[in-house]
Amino acid sequence: MTSSDTTATNLLGLPRPALEAFVAELGGKPFRARQLMNWVYKRGESSFERMTDLAKDFRSQLTARACVAPPQIVTAQASADGTRKWLLRADASQAFEMVFIPEPDRGTLCISSQVGCALDCSFCSTAQQGFNRNLTTAEIVGQVWLAQRELAAAGESGPCGVCAHEDVKRTGRLITNVVLMGMGEPLANFRNVVPALDIFLDDFGFDLSRRRVTLSTSGLVPQIYKLAEHSNVALAVSLHAPDDELRNELVPINRKHPIAELLEACWHYIDEQNGRSVTFEYVLLEGVNDSPAQARALARLLAGHPAKVNLIPFNPFPGTRYRRSAPEVVQRFRDELIRRGVLATVRRTRGDDIDAACGQLAGRVIDRTTVRLGSRVFAVAVQA
Ligand code: SAH
Predict the structure, then answer these.
(1) 312-371 pLDDT per residue, tens
(2) What is the pLDDT of residues 66-77, one digit of tens each?
(3) Is 336 in the pocket of ligand 1 (CB under 6 A)?
(4) Which of 47, 149, 179, 242 could form a disulfide with 214, with the two C-beta atoms 3.0–4.6 Å apart?
(5) Would you call 97 a catalytic residue per the annotation?
(6) Pocket test for ligand 1, best of 108, 135, 181 (most atoms within 8 A of CB)
(7) pTM of the predicted model as reported, rounded to 2 decimal places
(8) Sheet architecture: strand order including 234-238
(9) Alpha-carbon Rg of the chain, whole angstroms?
(10) What do you get for the CA distance between the two ends of the chain, in Å?
(11) Ligand 1 within 6 A of CB of 181
């Protein structure tokens, strides 16, 4: 059974209450839903026939009415540094990507929330492809389910492939962290993303701690307030500029929700969710946003607040007008922040030999013809 089978209910799209309702429809007791989740998420099982502690008729009913169907893999690539990237099928002609980044102490899976993106950030390659569609909850959850299965099948012994971290040894988990930093704007797909977060955190689902699931947003202010009511995952915000004039250019959603409003929403999220801090992502673009004066302006915005900054070296892609800041410029920017009491780290670039680094996920394996309409770029897919 595949995710294109529309008649069967894909269990990967159902958080626990919805699964309980589905099980009740089949005449099962609520605890059957927990048993099912155990099979699906803890054991990675997709065949109902193999779920041997479920009654035979219940299993046949499930086989007739339901499926556990992750997205299909179009291509799988491995980088020299151990990073893996999968291109996944959205439909006959569109694709989206997920990336696994192994590190000595953790295994991070970076997943997509949309096919393409509508937000048009000027330094991001996904923006060039335009927006195609929202991923379903099953497609979002299915990425983690599938990666877990693929990594186990590849015989990965721990996050870095050799040295299993304690947490991994204890739980046998290869994926310890999930970040919604792949293609798309997760808060623009709120309806499907929030149930997926529920499954990531559920004890009977992937059972990840809320600090190990990070949602990254370009700054959809009303949805940050809404998220505070529905979830408590870690929040990352793509800031990229210390003032509105520059941010309007780099992250156009800023024209609607300027920096002051965005920061208010962030502090509210932390208060409401009793969180530790918001991570502000800041991609360093040579001569654009990387001066010491800009670092000082950024520090003025964030010092004294529950904030940390993650500096991202720009990952170039064909046709971009931006360049990566030199390592000493990145270092100086970081030092300026730290001197002013703002915690700052530099993200190590991983997987750039397979275009798996931030902002390089463009689903470009499937042929595409791009059509320009005014200033927006739309991707019109053609069969590969
Ligand atoms: N839409 C979400 C998640 C997307 S990407 C968001 O905007 O936060 C995750 C991070 O990679 C974001 O901070 C994004 O701004 C950054 N990014 C995008 N393009 C990049 C590029 N070419 N080089 C480095 N980082 C980039």
Answers:
(1) 999 998 899 999 999 999 999 999 999 999 999 998 877 766 666 665 655 543 433 332
(2) 999 999 999 999
(3) no
(4) 179
(5) yes
(6) 181
(7) 0.90
(8) 73-78, 84-89, 95-103, 106-110, 177-180, 213-217, 234-238, 278-284, 307-313, 343-346
(9) 21
(10) 23
(11) yes
Cβ–Cβ under 8 Å, residues 116 and 103: no
HEC string for 133-163: EECCHHHHHHHHHHHHHHHHHCCCCCCCCCC
| Spatial distance between the Cα atoms of 228 and 223, rounded to a whole number of angstroms | 8
Beta carbon of 315 within 6 Å of any ligand 1 atom = yes
Query: How many C-beta atoms surround the C-beta of residue 362 within 10 A?
Result: 23
Q: What is the largest CA-CA distance in the chain?
A: 69
**CA 28 / ligand 1 centre spacing (Å):** 44
185 lines ligand 1 (CB under 6 A): yes
Mean pLDDT across the stretch 31-36?
95
Strand partners, 98: 86
Burial 341-352 (b: 16+ CB within 10 A, else e): ebebebeebbbb
